Amino acid sequence: MKAEVTAFETKRDGLTIRGLKFTPAETRHASPAILSHGFMGDQRDMRPFAELLADIGYICYTFDFCGGCVNGTSDGKTTEMSVLTEKRDLSAVIDRALTDTGSDRVILAGSSQGGFVSALAAASRPENVEKLILLYPAFCIPDDARRGRMMFAKFDPKKVPDTFRCGPMLLGKAYAESVMDMDPFREIAAYRGPVLILHGSADKVVNVNYARRAYEAYRPGREKPAGGTRNSELVIIDGAGHGFNDRQKEMAGTLAREFLAREVSFTGKRFIHTRPPKDLDRIQLFFDSRKKSGFALDRRFVIRDGKKHPFALIIPGGGYFTVCSFIEGVPFAKALNRMGISAFILYYRVGEEAAFPAPMDDAARAVSVILENAGAFGVETENYSVWGSSAGGHLAAAFGTEHLGYRRYGLPKPGSIVLAYPVITMDRALTHMGTRDNLLGVDASEKMERLTSIERHVTESYPRTYVWCGDVDATVPACNTRLMADALRSAGVPYECEIFRGVDHGVGPGTGTVAEGWIRRAAGFAFPEMKGI
Fold this sequence. Notes:
The chain is an alpha/beta fold.
């Protein structure tokens, strides 16, 4: 059900700020979300993000900054607008949202200049900000002012004119002078709560190094605090510019929803925090160039040395909403290649095309393609392994059953199944609801829930299985892994189960966490005939 959208107004220094409030049919979160647009934009730019968050139960506010838009609805002149006036605008909207909802904290999210403003607002009143999401934030603005080059505008920084034109907007000297002496990274560091920064590697407006510097600024004391956790997370989306395309927006939405679902600090270095490896560049370009949803099989990680190798089919997660190959595809394939195992990464139907049994059909199609071309690929046809993470773990686990998986499609049984923090059950009380709703629909019957709850269909013929998760998984409850382990044990199926202390969801290879090394252990379990793993 769509959110109810109503207009709201609030005041700042006698100026009226106008915006929209998105109220979900069922409010599931106490803290409302406030979304701030970028330079030359307006609140319409943030509406898709507001609708996405409203879909998962957040009350959301969008608004036009005073004097901050080409065609905005709020009062104010563009010649009187600056980053600091926008910070006061946002503070006024925060007060309005807290009053409306009775909450004492908000979620702040902003893009470009709106991201910079959101970061400054969070630092000025950290007690009122639960979490902060920054989309390609424009921390370059003070440096640009000092250089006298601000986007389309050029001026003498030692003598800023009273007004100057920047594209379609006429700006006043305060826009530049108010930030001339500002160290943005020192300013924003006062906020110590959880921060997610999303930035494109090909951003020509705000260089990605500004996002890296912000990430360092948000690290408490610029070092790991007690317990080894840190509150900032940087995701660099390869090939993305200033502003994301539709595929990149989907990816950002998935990462934002995962970030908001967490109830604990981040655990060490997640793979996606780091500068991406070279092969990630290629896979992301491949990913972004594809249409929104559909079947594809990435075959770049087939070992072609004239010998036969065992193979694994890798199924990344993404809540049946997207396919997170950059976290749970390429890193796994690369690690398996180093052990002499060929790998294929499956892109399957997601989003509106994910209705059951479409993803299962795609998994079966992938195995069929591989087996039919085993000679050309140089892979062995027996004892292949199917690996899946999160929602991809549900798909991999389903493929191991007779009634949903390999036998239904007339395919040979996998030699093993490997599951990383998988969704197993579709029981509403225990599952990840986004995964369930995307696969089955929000009105799915109990019969469909039982049919697709894997723990109900594990028999003695189920493939040997390695399964793991973290004990602080705030996205997919750890009970899913325990349900699978219990079902395997009851059926007498050989299995290994690891539950890692202090590890959250979506860590992929587990780099920098106690889960690091799980891929090698899983490969040794899946391919015991291989020596030296």
